[in-house]
Amino acid sequence: MLPDTPGSALLNDGTALQLIGLGLYKVEPSDTERVVLDALDVGYRLIDGAAFYGNEREVGDAVRESGLRGELRVTSKAWGDPVMSYDETLREFDATERDLGFSPDVYLIHWPRASRNEYVNVWRALIRLREEGRVRTIGVCSFGETELTRLIDETGVVPALNQVESHPWLPQHGLREFHDAHGILTQAWSPLGRGRLMDDPVLLRIAAEHGVSVPQVVLRWHLQLGGAAVPKSTHRERLAQNIDLEGFALTGEDMAAIAGLETGRRTGTNPADRQ
Ligand SMILES: NC(=O)C1=CN([C@@H]2O[C@H](COP(=O)(O)OP(=O)(O)OC[C@H]3O[C@@H](n4cnc5c(N)ncnc54)[C@H](OP(=O)(O)O)[C@@H]3O)[C@@H](O)[C@H]2O)C=CC1
Ligand SMILES: O=C(O)C(=O)[C@@H](O)[C@H](O)C(=O)CO
After folding, report:
1. pTM given for the model
2. Measured in angstroms, how far is the CA atom of residue 218 from the centroid of ligand 1?
3. Nearest ligand to the C-alpha of residue 194?
4. Which residue of the set 44, 53, 107, 119 is catalytic?
């Protein structure tokens, strides 16, 4: 994937990453190979996995079967529970490598678990993995400005991306500004609000006006905010729809109407509650 590939972002480590990737949380192991192969077939080149999802062996099988290993990026994440430490992170990475059958391209800290005060040590383990050439891109999930600032100040290494819950109820404008100022890509998790936004009348109206679906409107909104997203679907036609975002553009009025949907409502765990 070249840096100027349409539909990709150039990260602060010089690599390109597809803006829309395939989310794999809650995809059953028995469905995973089919879903990944369908996603690759319709054009996905970024697979968002994690050891916690329990389907990394099947991700590895699908990637090998596809013959596309060199053309795609696979993300994994260090879970950090029950033990969160420098050494344990290296062990978690080894386990993921064994399960996938290859090294992930992108490795993230799954949760900051700030009360344990270990995330800077975990970040140092990710830096080591990158320095050893075992992973290309390192980043974090659900980090706030305080935690990001500590990583940067104490290690001098800026995460390439922060994967955070974001959708029209929770646009994360403040954090996005911080990311933009520091060259960090905002990659949304649960970008469709776990499917709970589908009946919103504003989104339905905008979708009808453009002749697209509500998920397409929401994903296009993520892109027009300058971010990326990893929507999950197990249905081939929805996978295809969720990556088909170039045929229309939201107007300033559409963006303003979607801004009006912000309530702060979360559909996943608040990072403050995941320790
Ligand atoms: N870093 C972290 O801590 C976290 C990371 N994530 C990542 O983010 C990914 C996405 O988040 P997730 O929580 O799965 O939720 P999403 O916001 O991606 O929503 C997924 C839901 O939307 C439905 N859906 C998807 N596309 C369509 C469509 N075109 N039309 C109708 N329904 C649709 C899916 O149903 P169906 O499958 O039946 O199509 C599913 O019910 C995860 O899979 C994971 O990779 C998620 C949570 C936390
Ligand atoms: O947010 C939740 O409540 C979840 O169950 C998920 O976010 C899960 O914890 C996770 O980390 C998925 O990546």
Report:
1. 0.97
2. 12
3. 1
4. 53
